[in-house]
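Checklist before submission:
- one chain only
- standard amino acids only
- sequence pasted in full

Submission:
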Amino acid sequence: MYSSHQIAGHTLTLLRNGEEYFPHLIDAIDAATHSVYLETYIYAADASGRMVAAALQRAARRGVSVHMLLDGYGSAELAQSWVDELRAAGMQVLWFRQEVGRFSLQRYHLRRLHRKLAVIDAKIAYIGGINIVDDTPEGLHAPRLDYAVQLEGEVVRDMHAAMLRLWLIVAWTQFPQRGGRKKIRRLTTTTTQHQVTFLMRDNFRHRRDIERAYLKAISGAQREIIIANAYFLPGRRFRHALLDAAQRGVRVVLFLQGRVEYRLQHYATLSLYAELLRAGIEIHEYHASYMHAKVAVVDGEWATVGSSNIDPFSLWLAREANLVVRDKGFASVLRDDLLAEMERRARRIAPSVWRDLNIFGWLAMRISYAFARLLTGVLVYHKGHDDI
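Returned file contents:
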């Protein structure tokens, strides 16, 4: 599917799934001359992981400075022998909040590195929702549905600065004697383009940047909103924005996960269906495999591709990164692909079917939603957060 677009001095290539993403990433790593930075939530010791690791090792052995930052929970199953092998090749590998004991439901442990970024030679970047893991989950015949963007242009400097800043922070916390703090203070992002914008979510200056971008686009929508999201449990402010859009005649389409992956989240999301369907919002569930996309298109002109789900953990706790693109050509390609996937591999939820659920289904949904609200209140609270 991949297609390239020239937008405001940038070259953007939209990529679907690891099938398209990994060859582009590996080619860029093989062409690197001085630096590679890579961040991921999940790094798996599978065929895709081996291919990317081989490219990173080749780069390190020819003198390229290779930095890889792994989330300590999402990549916890990666064997230490793998990490040792990468370091032996000359790579630098750090863990973001590595989990040594049992994972606990404390805000500190839930503040994960969930973004998926790569920057090569500070000139070419990758951003999206694709982890370093095989496309097709075991037992399924279709790949996870996911997207990424290859990017060249001035905004790559923002991404490089953000990755370098986080690398230095993590390095300083683990090796404070190396004196990285002075470097950290000097690092700031450099540019923000109107048509191509890099957005982060962290727990400092950028707590709500991604959420605000969504809300602004939704509130300004005139014709159509399409949101494809793996884990959809928005707060009241976000839900009301969608309901208001539907009320003023905007077509609102939600393309969501149909398979049960995390039971509590799944049933809590189902509890929202009745209100959304009554408002005329379309809900399409992806059943061919696991939905992992975190993308949206508004009015065929505004699009976002990134790592942020629309749930409390992504919007209020994790480190996330999204690209916002304001361009009809780019947005239309993403829109057409989403609509085609909905037509081929999704099932639309009919309001009449939803009204006929039995009492046990309703109980499971209400209990899950109540428990999700409780967890959100206990774990995610901060001034101004949006209650689910």
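Reviewer check: Residues 184-191 have pLDDT under 50 and may be disordered.
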